[in-house]
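Protocol step 6 of 9: fold each sequence in the batch and record its structure tokens directly after the sequence line. For illustration, a two-sequence batch is reproduced in full.

Sequence one:
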Amino acid sequence: MNRGFEILDISGDVGLRVYGRSLEELFINSALGLYSLITDLSGVEPAESVDIKVSRESLDGLLVGWLNELIFRFDTYGFIGKEVGIKNINENRVEAGIKGEEFDPERHERGLLVKAATYHNLRIEEKDGIWTAEVVLDI
């Protein structure tokens, strides 16, 4: 759990098991887990910043919406994040600033092509002050 997430091998897809001492840390680690599937983050520079706001009616929807927004930013603008800062978060809304840069296939190793975060076997729980989430990503 050093990185705050583990990669789960799921037949045909990939999953993340994410940990955090707070909901904020859970969302930060979920973003870093996602980005680490796309490329080796050691080669990414925090050269530019983007603000992201996601609202949903449930915490499950918020986590899936959050990850899908990051996937959309990568697919549409090539933006890959390295540093994630949560500005505000509750169980229905997250506002974050993410530092990273445009993905450059000449400099960045290409990892998995992640298509979407899904609700399949989605689990989010808080126990004894530790948040845990498992999410399956469509690849």
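Sequence two, same batch, same settings:
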Amino acid sequence: MQRSQTLVAVGTLAVAGLLAAGARDISSEAGYAGIGPNFVPWVVAAALAVCGLWLLWEALTGGFRNMEDDGPAPEVEGDGKPCWIGFAAVSAGILLNAALITTLGFILSCALCFVLATRGYRASQGHPDLRPATLVRDLLVGLVIAAPVYWLFTKLLAINLPGLTASGWI
């Protein structure tokens, strides 16, 4: 077990090194708050390095102290098999959102993503509901969630998101 724990520690240190190497390529020019855009990646890399060193110290001095013994596997809801239909629906929602966001606009593409994601999650729970009323309800809920987010970003934060019309409200 200590060998696998050592590998986890070394992997954490490797990820920290990769983040530090990536942060080195990011500009350090101070921005709005006097902090450059490379600040957060450096903080994350440093925190991961500290965690990796701590994990390595624990692995080399007797193993992870607070780790529970391997017991029986936790119970899994359902039959434990992957739900490929649900996975496909959620994946399609995410991919269609990315593909259609410039064509349909942020609000409609996010509402479509919400509809497909809810279909996928319901299918994974064994409760696929294919009634048109449910589809319309999910679409309306998706619109109610996406529209305020769009307005928050475009009107209050002045961040450009693709809209359906040039008015900036849809």
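Proceed to step 7 once all outputs are recorded. Observation for sequence two: The chain has five helices and no strands.
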